[in-house]
C-alpha cells in the first residue's frame, strides 16, 4: 500500500498539470494572417534577408512603381538566385580575361527583361491555379500564362500523394518554362513555390525556391548581360 501511494500521487499531479495546460496555457492562434499592410515592394524591402538584392534590381529595372501601384502577382525569386547568376557571369568573364562586375553594372534593361518573367497581371492566390500533373500532363495540364514581358510560363498545382492515396496530400504551386521544349513537357525547367499567398495591398506574392535559376534558363541571363555590357 505504501508503494502505491507515491505512484498515485505522481499520477494525480501529472493529471492536474495536463488539465492546467489544456485550460490555462493553450491558446489557439488560428491560421496565420496572409495579409500584409503594405505593397509588394514594401514587403521586399521589409524582408532584406531574402529580398534586399531583389528590391535593388526591381528599382534599377524601373519596376518599383509596378510593384507598388499595379494589381499584380509576383513570383519572387530570392537574393540567392541573383547571387548565383552574377557569380556565373563573373566566372565567364574571368575565363574571358574580363573584369568582374557588380549588380549596378548590369544595364537596367537586362534586369527588366528577366524580372518581367515573374510578374503576372492580376491577383492570383494559389487556389486560382488549375491542377498540373507532370506524370499525366494531358489530363492535368495546368494553364499557360503570358507574363508581363510576354514570356510564357505554365503555372499549376501539383497534388501530392499521402499515405499511398493519390492526390490527397499537399498541393505545390509549380512554374514551368513551357517554351524550352514545347513538345516534351518534362524536358522543361520547373521551379516550385516555397511560400505562397502572401497578400500585400496591391497583389499577391509567391516566394520561389531558394536555388531557382534566375530567368529559368542557366545560360540566357549570362549571355544577355554580357552582350549588354559589351554594348555599353
Question: Which terms summarize this structure?
Answer:
232 residues; alpha+beta; FAS1 domain; seven-stranded mixed sheet; 7 helices; 7 strands; disordered N terminus; Fasciclin domain-containing protein; FAS1_dom_sf
Please state the second-level CATH architecture: Roll
Oligomer: single chain
Taken in chain order, the helices and strands follow as HHHHEHHEEEEEEH
Class in CATH?
A: Mainly Beta
Describe this structure in words.
This protein is an alpha+beta fold and 232 residues long. It has one domain (40-231): FAS1 domain (Roll), CATH 2.30.180. 37% of the residues lie in helices and 18% in strands. The protein has helices at residues 4-25, 40-46, 48-60, 64-69, 79-95, 108-115, 218-230, and strands at 72-76, 119-121, 143-146, 152-159, 171-176, 190-198, 203-208. The chain has a 7-stranded mixed β-sheet, with no helix packed on it. Helix 5 (79-95) packs across helix 7. The longest helix is centred in the N-terminal third of the chain and has 22 residues, at 4-25. It is globular and about 55 Å long. Residues 1-30 have low confidence and may be disordered. It comes from Chitinophaga arvensicola. InterPro entries: FAS1_dom_sf (IPR036378), FAS1_domain (IPR000782). It holds the Pfam family Fasciclin. Residues 37-212 form the FAS1 domain.
Amino acid at each position: 500500500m505504501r508503494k502505491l501511494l507515491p505512484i498515485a500521487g505522481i499520477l494525480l499531479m501529472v493529471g492536474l498539470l495536463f488539465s492546467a495546460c489544456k485550460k490555462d496555457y493553450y491558446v489557439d492562434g488560428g491560421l496565420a494572417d496572409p495579409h500584409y499592410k503594405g505593397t509588394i515592394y514594401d514587403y521586399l524591402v521589409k524582408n532584406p534577408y531574402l529580398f534586399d538584392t531583389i528590391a535593388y534590381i526591381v528599382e534599377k529595372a524601373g519596376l518599383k512603381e509596378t510593384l507598388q501601384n499595379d494589381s499584380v502577382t509576383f513570383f519572387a525569386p530570392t537574393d540567392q538566385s541573383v547571387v548565383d547568376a552574377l557569380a556565373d557571369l563573373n566566372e565567364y568573364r574571368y575565363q574571358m580575361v574580363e573584369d568582374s562586375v557588380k549588380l549596378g553594372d548590369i544595364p537596367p534593361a537586362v534586369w527588366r527583361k528577366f524580372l518581367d518573367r515573374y510578374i503576372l497581371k492580376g491577383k492570383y492566390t494559389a487556389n486560382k491555379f488549375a491542377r498540373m500533373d507532370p506524370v499525366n500532363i494531358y489530363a492535368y495540364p495546368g494553364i499557360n500564362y503570358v507574363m508581363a514581358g510576354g514570356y510564357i510560363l505554365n503555372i499549376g498545382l501539383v497534388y501530392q500523394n499521402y499515405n499511398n492515396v493519390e492526390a490527397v496530400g499537399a498541393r505545390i504551386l509549380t512554374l514551368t518554362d513551357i517554351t524550352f521544349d514545347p513538345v516534351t513537357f518534362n524536358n522543361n525547367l520547373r521551379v516550385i513555390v516555397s511560400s505562397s499567398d502572401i497578400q500585400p495591398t496591391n497583389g499577391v506574392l509567391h516566394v520561389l525556391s531558394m536555388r531557382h535559376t534566375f530567368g529559368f534558363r542557366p545560360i540566357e541571363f549570362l549571355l544577355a548581360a554580357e552582350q549588354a555590357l559589351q554594348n555599353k
